[in-house]
Structure formats: C-alpha cells, structure tokens
Specification:
The chain is an alpha+beta fold and 362 residues long. Helices cover 47% and strands 20% of the residues. The protein contains 15 helices and twelve strands. Strand 10 and strand 11 form a beta hairpin.
C-alpha cells in the first residue's frame, strides 16, 4: 500500500533522528562571507542577502553543509567523529526570484575510516529514496580525487594543473580551455618573467596616470600575479600528447567497470600510475551498485559538483526526468578552507525532499 505524504515525512524525520546521528538546525540567517569566499561567484549570485547596520552582509540559509562544517570547527570538535543530519528549508535566488526548498541530509566529519563514511552516506541516500519508493534512480559517479591524481601523474606544470582543476565540473569553461590547448595560438618568445615588484610599480603608475582608483577595483598586485601566471603558462606549454590524453580521459562515460577499465588501460599505455585512486572509486562504485541493484549507475570522468572543495568520490541521483534528487560526496577541502588546523575527513549528501515527494506523488 502506498504511503501518504504525511507518512513519508514522518519516515524522513525518523531517519534524520536515528540513534547514531545528531539532528542539527543551523540559524536561518547566516553571515554571507563564508559563502562568498568559498562557494564562488556563481553560487554567490543565488544568495538572498541583507546588510546589517554595521555593514556586515548576511544571507538566508542557502544550504546546511557549510554552517555544519563551520560549527564543527568553532566548537573545537577536531579529532571527534561527528554525524549530523538535518531536515528543513533552504533559500536561494533563481532568475531574480526568491525560492524556498526543503532539504534533508547527512554530514559525517572527522570519521576514522573515510571510505566507510562515504559508504554510509551512500546508504543514507538510498534509504531516503526508498522512503519515497524510488528504487531505480539514475546514478552518476565522478572521481575528483582520481582526476587530481591523473593530473599529478601527467607531470605537467603546477600552474596548468591548477587552471585545469579549477575548470573541472564546468563543462563550458573546460571546453574553452581544451580548445585553446588543442589549437594553441602563437606566443611571442620573451625573456624570463619580470620581478613582481617591478610589474606592480608599472601597473600602479599606469592606473594612476589613467585616473583609475586603487580602491574598489582590481588591485595592482592582483593584475601583476595574473600577468606572471600567464607568462608561466606560456613558458611551460603542455605537450600535445598530454593534451590528447586529457581530452580522452574527460570523454569517458560508461558503466563503472568499463569506464575505470578504460582509464586504467589508457594511463598504463601512457606510463602513468594511478592504481590507488582507481581502486578507491571501484570499491565505492561496487558498494553503490550493491545498495541499488536496480539503479542505472554510470561513471562520468568529467563529472564534479561546481564547488571546488570536493576532494574524492562524488555522486548524484536523478529521476527519469533528470531532476536531481540527491547529491554529495567527499569534501575534505572545505574544512581546510574554513581554517581547520589539521586535515579533517568529510563526506555528506543533500536530498531535495520537495522533488522526492513530487516523484512519489506521480
């Protein structure tokens, strides 16, 4: 017998209030600066902002992950495993219109076994979908850690690794970069990069001469660093065979077994060793397929959330119509950027309960 919406809601509450987790409710009004600093300009445009009399910007809670992670650090919990759940509203701006969503989720912080923690997150997501009688979701897996290991094994310049990594998960931006790499423009040979201080002085003089303010615009230091980065990139181009290898890697999308086999053969032919990260993804893919034997699971080598604090295996579960029902993965880098004094393993997922209910009510 099908459950009613009230019964499904009660089941979700029981899930997030089980004995092994702590349900938390971060404030509805949060300082905006962590989101603006860490989540990027694209996410920042989705914030619903207000400014206090003292000039501090606040936003209506746009997600649960960041405030939970920040509270974990502020409370001095490093070294103590934390398992936090939530269920409640988040607020964002879409096309200039305020929107409220209902979200549930699990965040596992500082767990002794990060691999087991990620499998717990995957299990939580499947339990949540089962509440809404969704047993055959489309599941896409990605490997942020695998891609970073691949870049590192290629041996290309660190500046290029950073630039490519920042575009991972941004298909349009990555495509533009790959187009540039596959058809590079002629560069003018020159001397070694000028001293940073000299460039800063030149930029400062030119800005002042042009009547440009040194406050409230791009700073001379920022312009100098960008110029030096471009010189460094031009001075250390990526070999053509490595560019083609990168293009081939990002084009791989298949069942996890076939996709990872393709990556293994491709990297072996190129003399690259990324066996450890490959096996990690295999293990989690196998765990997910065991949890969801009816699910359509694929590995997409180009897939990553559009937030660069993710570090390991990532995933999303979607409906037949393509609506994202659950997403998450490993995001150790977020804790580091929030000021953790030592590495903290972090895994979590968010579930869009409005969409889950809509699927169950069809």
């Amino acid at each position: 017998m099908a459950k009613t919406p009230g019964e499904r809601r009660a089941a979700m509450i029981r899930l997030v209030e089980s004995r092994t987790v702590t349900r938390v409710a971060p404030p509805l009004l949060l300082p905006a600066s962590p989101y603006l600093d860490l989540a990027g300009e694209e996410f920042g445009r989705q914030l619903l902002l207000t400014t206090a009399n003292n000039g501090v910007d606040y936003c209506l809670r746009p997600d649960f992950t960041l405030p939970i992670a920040k509270s974990y650090l502020d409370d001095g919990m490093i070294g103590v495993p934390g398992a936090y759940t939530y269920l409640g509203p988040i607020f964002r701006q879409e096309n200039g219109t305020p929107v409220e969503y209902d979200q549930a989720g699990l965040e596992l912080l500082g767990q002794a076994d990060p691999d087991a923690a990620l499998d717990q997150v995957l299990t939580f997501a499947r339990w949540a979908l089962a509440i809404y009688d969704i047993t055959e979701p489309n599941v896409r897996i990605g490997g942020v850690g695998l891609f970073e290991a691949f870049l590192g094994a290629m041996g290309i310049a660190p500046q290029w690794q950073q630039r490519i990594r920042h575009r991972f998960g941004h298909p349009t931006s990555m495509r533009r970069l790959l187009d540039r790499l596959t058809a590079p423009r002629d560069t003018i040979a020159g001397t070694a990069p000028d001293a940073r201080e000299t460039i800063i002085e030149i930029v400062t003089d030119n800005m002042l001469a042009a009547g440009l303010s040194l406050v409230g615009s791009r700073q001379p230091e920022e312009i100098a660093d960008r110029y030096l980065e471009k010189q460094a990139l031009d001075a250390s181009p990526i070999p053509e065979e490595m560019v083609q290898l990168l293009v081939e890697y990002l084009s791989i999308i298949d069942t996890p077994t076939r996709a990872l086999d393709k990556i293994r053969l491709m990297t072996q032919r190129a003399g690259l060793n990324i066996e450890g990260p490959l096996q990690t993804v295999r293990n989690h893919a196998a765990a997910l397929q065991a949890l969801s034997p009816k699910a359509d699971v694929i590995f997409d080598a180009s897939f990553s959330p559009r937030l660069d604090y993710y570090t390991g295996v990532v995933f999303e579960m979607t409906s037949e119509r393509g609506a994202i029902l659950a997403s998450g993965g490993e995001y150790d880098r977020l804790l580091d950027r929030l000021g953790a004094v030592e590495p903290v393993a972090a895994s979590g997922c968010a579930l869009w309960t409005d969409r889950l209910e809509a699927e169950a009510s069809r």
